[in-house]
Amino acid sequence: MEFVEFVEMENIKPNKIVKREYQINIFNSVKDKNSLVVLPTGLGKTIIAVMLIAYKAKYGKILFLAPTKPLCEQHYATVKELTTLNGIFLVTGEKTKKEKRKEIYEMAKIIVATPQTIENDLDMIGFSKFSLAIFDEAHRAVGNYAYVSIARKCLEKGVQILGLTASPGSDYSRLKEVITNLGIENIEVRTEEDRDVKPYIPERKLRWKIIEMPREIKAIAAKIDELIMDFLIELNKYFKISLSPRRVTKKMLIQLQERIQKRVANEGGSLYQAVSVVSALIKIYHLKEMLTSQGIEAAKNYIKKIEMDPSKAGKKIRQSMKYRFIRDEILRTTPINPKLEFTKKILVEHFMAKENAKAIVFAEYRDTIEVLHQELNKLPGIKAAKFIGQAKGSGDGMSQDEQKKVIKLFKSGFYNVLVSTSIGEEGIDIPATSLVIFYEPVPSAIRHIQRRGRTARGGLPGEVYILIMRGSRDEAYYWSSRRKEKRMMIQIKKLRDMIKEMVEEKERMEDKKEDRKEKIIVDASGQTKLDSWF
């Protein structure tokens, strides 16, 4: 049966799926093999999953895994909307009691669930009855993540695996681990430049804006470098480390802090002092990032936190005369934030030019989110909503119900701008937007791809602006994400070729075995017979 007929006749509701060439090509490649599909955000990975569900449903049960409850709810709704299949259940440990889950595993045809729930219930699930397991955001299948143990069970029982991801990362060993853990024997990769994808891609304008750092901010940043130097000199009493503030990064200090803390338990002594010096340095580097990348308002907020910090590191910073000078300079400086002003300008122009426009502004820190939320709501025609993750410890945050409410109001048009932390990058059903602004670049290829994928979807064109403050960490982060994205595609293609060679070699070995089994031996009487060697 041709695939086009299958879409129209079996298990798919009529006129619900628009047939796209690349989706058909990918389906035909993955329908009978353990496969990983790498497809940019917004190009319909879930549609390919639904096609495979419809195809495999007659062979057994189906498990559809996604890392978050909101994403599971989204997939559950999509499968119900697009297919004629019955017995579709959404299972979460929180809302479904164990006895009820056991009953569902027995009677369900399709189970949509979080991996943590399924991992807890592995002993209750008869995987031999399953024909397919789908792992959304498959790049998570590393280390101790629940995907790994579930995939192992699927492979033991011969369950076909489909992994889906927009961005599997640029680390070759991590990619290889994902492929090994999921038993992948086939990789389908598409970019927006591929021949069968290009006709379906709306225009997306990607622009990066270099913003000059104000003179006052540069002067304070130079003073912070002097403070950093003092603490680096002190740290060198315990560990040899560069004395250049530009060569030492916050990431390096965090790694050093972790190493020292592991040794403290056994050695103690002067290492306690080293821990407080490293902690102080991390805080000072963060202050500089706030000032240079996020703006004077964010720096003022962080100064307040340092002033109230009861830790040894906080006290150590406050004892410094240089810190006190920096603190006073930051607190007396009037707001000068060209990045914020440029964000306002972009949004006003965009909403004036486009009817029913929607935008997302991504920012890294919640303090910045607060400033943006307040300032953007002062603009004419803009109704902005904060969109942040759940509270950690005593911090402020949004519950899942609050997040759903904001998204619903954004979809309806009540809000037209989301000011979002990284929570808006992955795993939440946010409608297509006409504009995405990176308030600062991110050093991750995965996050860069996911952010920009929030626009130019559903046939609508979009714009992306990446704001880069000259002389701040923004510059390094931007180029880092560009390099990692290029490396990611090289690594994926390298792994795809490697897997192809392995599969071909396996097939050659199997052919040789068959040839040996069926070797024709001519006996002494001149008659031929089949002689099995095994």
Question: How would you sum up this structure, described in words?
Answer:
- The chain is 50% helix and 13% strand.
- It folds into three domains: 3-200, Rossmann fold; 215-332, phosphoenolpyruvate carboxylase, domain 3 (Up-down Bundle); 337-471, Rossmann fold (3-Layer(aba) Sandwich).
- It has helices spanning 3-9, 21-30, 45-56, 69-82, 98-107, 115-120, 146-156, 172-181, 215-235, 250-267, 271-294, 296-308, 312-318, 321-332, 338-353, 366-376, 400-412, 445-452, 473-517, and strands spanning 35-38, 61-65, 88-91, 110-113, 130-136, 160-165, 186-189, 204-211, 359-362, 384-387, 417-420, 435-438, 462-469, 520-522, 528-530.
- It has a seven-stranded parallel sheet with strand order 3-4-2-5-6-1-7, with helices on both faces.
- It starts with a helix and ends with a strand.
- Mean pLDDT is 86; it is low at 1-9 and 520-534.
- The protein has 534 residues and is an alpha/beta fold.
Rg to the nearest angstrom? 28 Å
Based on secondary structure, the structural category is: alpha/beta
- Helix count, DSSP H or I runs of 4 or more residues: 19
- CATH second-level architecture of the largest domain: 3-Layer(aba) Sandwich
User: The biggest beta sheet, please?
Assistant: 7 strands, parallel
How many domain regions? 3
Helix content: 40-55%
- What name goes with the CATH superfamily of the largest domain? P-loop containing nucleotide triphosphate hydrolases
Amino- and carboxy-terminal Cα gap = 37 Å
The proportion of strand residues reads 5-15%
